[in-house]
Structure formats: C-alpha cells, structure tokens
Amino acid sequence: MAATQTPVPLFTVRSSSQVFHCPARTHPLHFASNFSKFAKASLSLRQSRIKNLTTPRATPSSSSPPTTFHGQCYVLGDNIDTDQIIPAEHLTLVPSNPNEYRKLGSFSFSGLPTSLYPIPFIQPGTDSTQYPIIIAGANFGCGSSREHAPVALGAAGVRAVVAESYARIFFRNSVATGEVYPIELEQEGVNKQCTTGDIVTVDLERNVFINHTKGKEFVLKPIGDAGPVIDAGGIFAYARKTGMISSVV
Amino acid sequence: MAATIVPAHAAFFGAKKEIGARASFSPSISAHRCRKHALNKVLAVMSPPQPSRAPSTTGSVKHGMTMTEKILAKSSDRSKLEPGENIWVNIDVLMTHDVCGPGTIGIFKKEFGKNAKVWDREKIVIIPDHYIFTSDERANRNVDIIRDFALEQNIKYFYDIKDLSNFKVNPDYKGVCHVALAQEGHCRPGEVLLGTDSHTCNAGAFGQFATGIGNTDAGFVMGTGKLLLKVPPTMRFVLDGEMPHYLLAKDLILQIIGEITVAGATYKSMEFVGSTVESLNMEERMTLCNMVVEAGGKNGVVPPDETTFKYLEGKTSLNYEPVYSDESAKFISEYRFDVSKLEPVVAKPHSPDNLALARECKDVKIDRVYIGSCTGGKTEDFMAAAKVFLASGKKVKVPTFLVPATQKVWMDLYSLPVPGSGGKTCSQIFEEAGCDTPASPSCGACLGGPRDTYARMNEPMVCVSTTNRNFPGRMGHKEGQIYLASPYTAAASALTGYVTDPREFL
C-alpha cells in the first residue's frame, strides 16, 4: 500500500444516519402491513399506480406509519449499483409520468448478471415482482444518482430493502420518493444466510428481521435521523411543518 | 469581466496570493509545510477567537472547521457547525440534464403547482448531454420537455440543441454537464452546487461544495432554493511528491479508491491537498474530484489557488469568496501518498476499486478503447492521449473511440497544437494513429444509453476506458468487461491491443 493511514476517528458516522428528503407528496407516508402498498393517496401519482396494480388493495388507517412487511425475499450481494437496478437505456422513461412509471418497474434488476443471479427478479411476461422484500449486502445502490432506481423497485412491487449498508444518494432518494423503505441490519453477512424465495417478515416496531424459512431472526438498526422527516411525511411536508415553505400550494 | 474577490476579505486574499506565488516555485514537502505554517498565520485572522482559559477548564475544546464545514456554514448562515448536523443550506446553483430534468420538473410542478415559478431563473442551469445523438423518441422528447420548461420559466442558462444531425449548428449546445458547468463559469469557490447527477462532485475542484441529488430533492430546490443537508466529516488526502511524467490525476484517484474501497468515503467529504494537487491544472483537479462518488464520497474539495482564479478569469462576473480548512480543523482520517512512487493503474472489471497495476494486466487482450466522458474526455485528457500516439508514431490495433465532452473540447482538438508535435493538432495525431474521428460531444457510451449510441458496447467485449464506472453492463452489454484507466494508459493500450502501461511509449 502506497498510502499510510492515520485514522483519527472523531465521529462514528453510521451510514444510516443521514437525513433523507422524503416523499414528493403532501401526505404522510403509509406502508400497510400486508397486501397493499401506499394505499393512502390523493391527488398523487400513487392513486393511478394503485389502480393499475393487479393485487387487491386494502386501505390502512390514514395516520399510522409502517410497522411490518411480509413476503418472499430476493437476495443480493454487495455493491449492487444503480446500473444493475435499472440499466441506463431505460432512463428515458420519466418516473413522474404514470405510464412510464409502470414500465420502469418492469425493468428492475434487469441489469443483474444472470450467471450470478439465475432466478429472474421479474418473471418473463410479467411486469411486477413476487419479491416484495430485498435482502442485500453492503453499499446497496452505489453508483449513479438516478432516482429511477428506487422508483423502479417501488413500481415493481418492492416494499422494503433490508441491507447491510447503503450508498448515500440511493438511500436519500428512497426516502425522498417513499418508493421503498431502506432498512439497515445491525450485523454483517445476513444476506449469506438467506436464499431467494425465503419467507420473511420485517418488523419495524420491534426492529427485527425474521426469516421464517430458515428459522432465524436478526436485529435491525433504528431509522435514525430520517425519522422526523419520514414522520412528517417527506421533505415537502417536513419543510411545511417547520415553516421553511408555506403550507399553501 | 474578471472575477473580483469580496472586498472584506481582500487583505486575507492578498496574503494568500503571495503564498500561492511562492508555492509554484517550490513543490517540495518542506515548502508545503512552510506554506501551511504561513497559511496558519493568515488563517488565524479568520478563525473564531480562542478562549483565554485552557480548554480543559471550559469542558470543551474549540477547534476550527474544514473547508466543507465552512462552506456549509456560510451557506446556512451559521458561524459554526459540526459534522452530523442537519442544516438548511442555500443553494447557489442547481444543475439538471435531459435524463433527470423531466422527472425533476414533474415533481416541481406537482408540489408547487403547475404555474409555480422557480426560485431563481439565473441559478438553474439546464444542460442536455446524456442521450442526445440518438433516434430514440423518448430521449428526444426529454430534451423537448426541458426546453419547454426553460422557455416557460425564462431560465437564463439552457444549453439547447435542436439539430441533432450537426452539433456545430447549435450555438448554445455545450455537451457534458460537469465540463460545461466549469467552462461556462458556473463553478465558483465557496459556493454550493447541486446537480441531478452523481458526478456533480466534479465541481469540488473549484473549492466549492458540490454533490449529486435525486429528482425529488432537486424539485424541492427548484421551488425553494434550499435543501436539508447533513454536514459530512472530512477525510484528508495529502498527495505530495513530483508527479511522474507517466501518471495522470486518473491514476491518483483510482489508487485512492482502490485503497479505501467503493464504500470507503460513504457520507464523507474528501479533501485533496499537498504539493502534487497544487501542481495539477483545473481539468486534472476535476478528474480527481469527479470520482469521489465512486468511493461513496458525498463531495470532494481542492483548496482554491492561483490556478483556480486564473481559470475563472473571464468566465464569471460573479463575486466569490474562497474558504480554506482551518489549521485546527478536525479530520476523520488522513491518508498520505508519495506520488513519486506510484505507477499507472487500472480498475479491472467489475468495480472501480478493483485496482491493479497496468503493467500486471499486459496479457489482457482488449477489443476497443474509449476516450471520453466528464472524467476523461476533457481537452487535457485528449492532449495526454495524443502525446502517447505521437511518441509511438504507430497506428492503433483496436477501434479507438474519441468522444469530446463539450463543443469547446471538440474545437480544441482541431485547433490547439500538441506540444512537441511540430504544430500538429490532436485531431491530426488521432487521424494518423487510425483512431475514429472525434464524435459529437455528449456523455456518449460512458453509461451505455439508447441502443444506437455511438460506441455503445452491444456485444460482450473488453474495453479500456477513461470513464468512471465499470459495474456490469455499464457501457451496454452485461458481459462487457471495462478496464478504467487514464488517457495515457488508454492510448497505450490502443496501440498494442492489450492493457498497456504507458511507460512503453512515454
């Protein structure tokens, strides 16, 4: 090594302790516990998205933040970059356009090398995924700042990503868009103990991640600084609440 | 229209200038220490007053701020702040392009109303550059969307292109956003620049806080001119020693990323100092800061100096105020490099931190070479490549694609003489070496793009590239193999048909 390093650790900077700018909507973010997703929506894009999705929607209460996610998981390694999440050729699709939003979802994870990930994330001939929860290693979402990445995942039906750590722009965009809930694990190597298809539960009240298929439970890190912004309902709502921008739009 | 420095700090700046002048004659480490000491004397004027009691009796140790902390403090009207704090920052410039512009505009209109006006029509720079020279209808439509918005909002800086068949007949068109921002004088010391592109950190070369954000954040900035940001701690990279003639800034940053990994600087600021950094020109400093994001970094900074101020002369009429890290600033870590001992390197597939010596990859047969992008498609990058072709005098053995970043770069290739060539231009040297004709300026195949993008990798092949990422599928095909390299190494590899250390020719 040509460099000599003298670490002077003064701050423990947790990769999760970053502020996120939140959903581009004026209403609080809702993650229903079971089959529905973002069911509370008003004049937003969400409503048109929900109408288009084929699974039945339940309408959760309008004020409770998300508590659990449940379903099959798709397992990934370290350093999954945004080009693998949504290859650049699909970036001509504009995420704020409802028709193109759906199409974006159909291309999620189409950049994964099939030699490493033989199980397709989205079954050929369909445009949404059967895996609402992603389990990943370190530095998930590294690379480009494209907001299309968390948007594509959300559009495909992903509700939560449970990773060892995140790259900062992807994390910020996830919270800003509200498309996927970015959750961090306390310990390393959890993804190595999971297999794509395992049935899992993410419990945000108890801060645990349960792999029912493998019979294992893991601790999650609390959300950190993002909390107040998420609770307010996103960066726009947070800004209005704290008086940074006026309430009337 | 020369740039002027804010009068209140004129005395400070005057002293700094003098230091800068001395520095250029003595790049050794001891001189650097003298400069630091001298800087310390001057900076004492700027630092907050120290308490007269010993720190231990007050229960707290007062310390200075790093450059990044200072810029953020200034831009959030705070006299002091610490890493970890969340602050509302006033944004000086917001940049967006054709890929993220439409989404950003969509969010802006949704949240602020379809008749809302942007916070400042002079502080938004809209630069189409990603998917331009393509017949992809949606890509073309996206340029129309940003044009409509620019017209509606009377955006002062919109670098439009309408005639895709000939970039030269579009007088406003620039090309790659990060290079255009620099060339058009939008990067200024001490300011905060945000862009809907991860390589916005490129502008840190000017001693400003510059970072990439997503559409939603950008939509928010568009309406308010502010963003909630968390102050990052700073990692310091001290690069000293005379730069060997076969190394470029690209080798330095690849070395750094290789050593700290792609997550080594996550959420942190990377500050580049030292005699080597001071000897770099602005384009080389940009290459250094450009790839900060590849280490996970939030932003990169280089202290502004004479080189910076000279570059900015005639490019901007706005006042700017450089800031510098205090002598007593706290850094989360420090790495020191003796640059004279480094060798040309590459990042092997499929990660920017997959570091290897170029000479140890000499058996890797390649199929093509790509010289372009914000990272490696600037005038200096092409000059460097030309130098290698000139030294060899031979022809390339593989297709060699040249994509100038901007119109200005393209013009430089056809007009500037290459030193030591007897008056030849880069374009002449490239032609004699059998390279492809320099293409229309844009981001090109750096990120693949629509299928008909020039030089896109549509089959699995091995490419040596001066670009910034080599994750699977980055330039198009998922099984493509990309070796990231400096322009010297790229040109050398083109000449042999294998990954090649440029010392074979230089």
Automatic annotation (TrEMBL), chain A:
Q: Which organism is it from?
A: Rhynchospora pubera
Quaternary assembly: Heterodimer of the large LEUC/IIL1 subunit and the small LEUD (SSU1, SSU2 or SSU3) subunits.
> A single GO CC term, please?
chloroplast stroma
- So, what pathway does this thing act in? Amino-acid biosynthesis; L-leucine biosynthesis; L-leucine from 3-methyl-2-oxobutanoate: step 2/4
Query: What's its top-level EC category?
Result: lyase
The protein's Enzyme Commission number: 4.2.1.33
User: Residue ranges of the Aconitase A/isopropylmalate dehydratase small subunit swivel domain?
Assistant: 127-187
PANTHER family attached to this UniProt entry: 3-ISOPROPYLMALATE DEHYDRATASE SMALL SUBUNIT 1 (PTHR43345:SF2), 3-ISOPROPYLMALATE DEHYDRATASE SMALL SUBUNIT 2-RELATED-RELATED (PTHR43345)
- Reaction(s) catalysed (UniProt annotation): (2R,3S)-3-isopropylmalate = (2S)-2-isopropylmalate
**One Pfam family cited in the UniProt record for this chain:** Aconitase_C
Name of the protein described by the UniProt record: 3-isopropylmalate dehydratase
Q: Does the keyword Lyase apply?
A: yes
What keyword terms does UniProt attach to this protein?
Lyase
Entry similarity comment: Belongs to the LeuD family. LeuD type 2 subfamily.
Q: Which GO terms label this protein's molecular function in UniProt?
A: 3-isopropylmalate dehydratase activity
Domain of life, per UniProt, equals Eukaryota
Automatic annotation (TrEMBL), chain B:
MF terms from GO for this chain are:
3-isopropylmalate dehydratase activity; 4 iron, 4 sulfur cluster binding; metal ion binding
InterPro entries registered for this protein in UniProt:
Acnase/IPM_dHydase_lsu_aba_1/3, Acoase/IPM_deHydtase_lsu_aba, Aconitase_4Fe-4S_dom, Homoacnase/IPMdehydase_lsu, IPM_dehydratase_rel_enz, IPMI_cat
* Gene3D superfamilies noted in UniProt: Aconitase, domain 3 (3.30.499.10)
* GO terms of biological process kind: amino acid biosynthetic process; oxoacid metabolic process
Where in the sequence is the signal peptide annotated? none
Domain Aconitase/3-isopropylmalate dehydratase large subunit alpha/beta/alpha: start-end pairs: 70-354, 359-497
Keyword Iron-sulfur annotated: yes
* Lineage: superkingdom: Eukaryota
Is-annotated flag, keyword Iron-sulfur? yes
Q: List the Pfam families.
A: Aconitase
Keywords, sorted A to Z: 4Fe-4S, Iron, Iron-sulfur, Lyase, Metal-binding
The protein, known as: Aconitase/3-isopropylmalate dehydratase large subunit alpha/beta/alpha domain-containing protein
Question: What species does this protein belong to?
Answer: Rhynchospora pubera
